[in-house]
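Morning F.,

Quick status update on the modeling queue. The single chain you submitted on Monday has been processed. Sequence for confirmation:
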Amino acid sequence: MKGNALKLKENMELRIAGKGDVIEQIIIALLSDGHVLIEDVPGVGKTTLAKALAESIALSFSRIQCTPDTTPSDITGTSIYDPKEQSFKTVTGPVVSNIVLVDELNRTSPKTQSALLEVMEENMITIDGDHIKVPEPFMVIGTQNPAEMAGTYPLPESQLDRFMMKLSVGYPDANASADMAKRYLDGSLSAETTAVLSSDDILKMQAEVKRVAVQENLCVYAANIAQGTRDAAEVFVGASPRALLALLRCAQALAYTSDRNYCIPEDILEAAKLTLPHRLILTSEAKMSHISKEDVVNNLLLKIKVP
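Structure tokens below.
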């Protein structure tokens, strides 16, 4: 990583030990103007990762702690009657922020989960007919526990498709664990994070990402990958057109953070691995054979001719 992206990564690493690859990926998603879903077991730092990103940038931040009784209005807001004015006043919810952490998203009901569909696609919410834009840049970071854990509701496909990436933090290795323990005991691990970038910095970087050149043959290559997921025997529902666009934007961000103003085939390959697996729905036969979505994408990338 170069420039401001590297500065952001290094600042986040003050709070997150031994997870440089995951930090890079969430920064890539931010520069791509995308949303991220983080799935992992409790206690590995999902929430800390999201907060470290928010605190490293001078942006507004809100956290929504999802529970089974969370309602859609708890997320988007509602209209409240003002007896003095004798009229209804719109009160926006916590989703109207630059970075929104939706913690344990799959703990809440599908009705409440759907409250995020509009804002994640259109960067706006609707309250009693009033359309309200959210500030820019805007990013939703959802965290969820693995589906086999008690008290969870699987996210619908339409929701998963709106997340650019699905990441896993994972356990730190022995060296990172020892470093974490040392920093925890001396207090540096929980020290307040200082913002190193502003909203203007992020908006400028996002605009520069969009100007990264993608040659026509690479666009065709990306389209062939997306089509390949739809034709694969193991896949019941393949990558959507939205997934293809996310793949291309992610590839541009990967090139940008590698200090290039043009994409190469390796950017498309890496972007496909980051943006496609969580969007696929496998056939029953594939699931019974313990074939993973990542396996499907990796095998597909081996078959498609690289430009």
